[in-house]
Give the backbone structure.
Amino acid sequence: MADALLTVRGITRRFGDRTILSGVDLDVAAGEAVGVVGPNGSGKSTLLRCIVGADEADDGEATLAGRVLDEKLPEIRRDLAVVMDDLDFFPDLSVVEHLDLVARAHAQPDAEEVVNVVIGEVGLMEVSGQLPSTLSSGQRRRLALASAFVRPRRLLVLDEPEARLDVDGVAWLGSKLLAEKAAGRAVLLVSHDPALVERVCDRVVRLGPDAGDG
Amino acid sequence: MAESVHEVPTAREVRAEIRDWRRGRAELRWGEVLSDGYIALFCIVMIGAMGGNVVLTLRRLADDSCTGSCTEVRAATPWLVALAVALLALGLARLLGPVFSPPAANAWLLSSPVDRGALLRPGWARTSALAVALAVLVLLAPAALGGFSLTEGGVFLVAGGATALACVGIAALSQVHESRVARWLTWLVAAALWLLLSLSATQGAGAVPEVSLATGVAVAVLLVAVAAALFWRARAAMAGVSRRVLGYTAHLSPSLSGALSSVDLGLMYDVLLARRWGRGARVRPRTGGPLGWPALVHRDLIRAARSPQPFVLLAALVLVPYAAAEAGAGRAVVLVTTLLGLLGGPAMCSGLRVVVRTQSLARMLPLRRQTLLLAHLAVPGSALLLFSLATIPTLLPTHPSTEAANLAIACALSSVAATTRWVTGKPPNYAAPMVSTPAGGVPTGVFGSLARGFDVWAFTALPMMFGTGGMMLSSVISIGVISYLVSDSAA
């Protein structure tokens, strides 16, 4: 396997007496997609939250390109595109303004062009002037995904990205993630959709009762 | 088979049944209810006595020391406050309904064939009574400070209470009929308030006409008649209100009540912000602009252009320090200027508030917390600086021109620091150990959250009254507070 871009070693997370994650190890190389699967409550989202810094692991650490993954560092956030379940937006910025802001904050030189392409791909062109509160839950999910694709990135961390998407949306997502791999980016994907995982992921990590690599 | 015909229950029967369920789940004993009532009454009497004592002392001081233009401003004060109360009554009534039903009632009861008007009328009566009571309570102080006699004060309070009721009545009728009358009236009252404030700030308060007791009584009687007519018309119109109209505000009151119960003013701000932008479906998108952190400043400028009300309000408030200076506030004008900065500042910081509250948004942007927050402070900070600079003439009577300019900058820093403290406040932590109180376990930060922002205001504004050294100290504290609040360690 090529050198790992993301390295996770010994991540442990306990809630009271209950250990959710116990010494989880994980590597994701550039151009590789790794799926994390398991039943509800097995710690998939917790693992991602610990990796991206939304939660604090009791033990273990993650590194991105050899640098300890501290999400407070701008250098890390520059390389790491995250779409978790906590979909939050500026209430007073429209769909296209959100994407334009993210692209420009990342100093994306051809921001306008990239935003136009992505907004067309995710099917939000017709609602580009609408405020987030007026979008359906599926459209909000598309907007969150689009925000990850309008900016420079080396690693994509996605928590159930297929949730709330329609059939066409899931098909587009699969193609997009394959294109991400082909472009040499790493993908870490938590999903409950076996077809999506099988289509996109090179390896699968199982959490819960049947834990292990597959 | 013959279809059985059921009679629709009356609203009174439905309310009686709900009351019966609630009583069946009551957890308090009568002794506890009486004890709580006694404590509440005792608190009201004690706080009322303290407030009354303060007002009467201030009145004695004003009687002894107020001369010249101070007397004119003092005479205009009751009218200023009365207009402000009318504006507040209209604003709050339009925000909260004023005709509203809880979401559960909206979903379960208003869809039934029970008389809708009869279900809503008790709530409307309570809202009206509350509006009158609060207006009278707020107007007590200006009535006493304005130099009214007991009879004049009584007439003023009756007129003020009736005006508040009339405003709420107009708001209710506008809501039921979905008209814009209340909106236009709000602008009209705001313009009148601004005009009167201008007169007070420009030595023209003497232009406020003196009203004889007979005229006052006649106006009060007229206002009472108008308010009563509006109350009854709104009451009669309740049956025609649609669930769609009630739905606009159904969730707002419970959300605000929840935020108030945890004394989380920041959450109230979030609720109101979400409501403000939840109503507009589409905006004219504006893209482009600089790259990197200036993109955030550019977005704040777009926000200001899209929703300029907070900036217009701040600009209008610039008259208040002038009125205070006219009334002889002297060096204490800086307290007024900085307090207005704190009161007007948070409304301009919606972008800052969202990134502070929402970690996932902050994670999307490749910026340090310090850069992220400072970028979002640029536009409101500039507005507060301009506001403070516009008050330089109010400082000139007590300070040389260079010192007055420096003092205005120190005022701006104080306002920015206090606003940042307010906007970046964290919600109460219910996971941490709580303080035991008669009301149950209370998170340690709850009571402090009420003083959030005002604490920094006091620490930074008070030193400015004590010369150049105090001004320097204030600026150092303000810069220190801002630096800490935007740093990683405050996250």
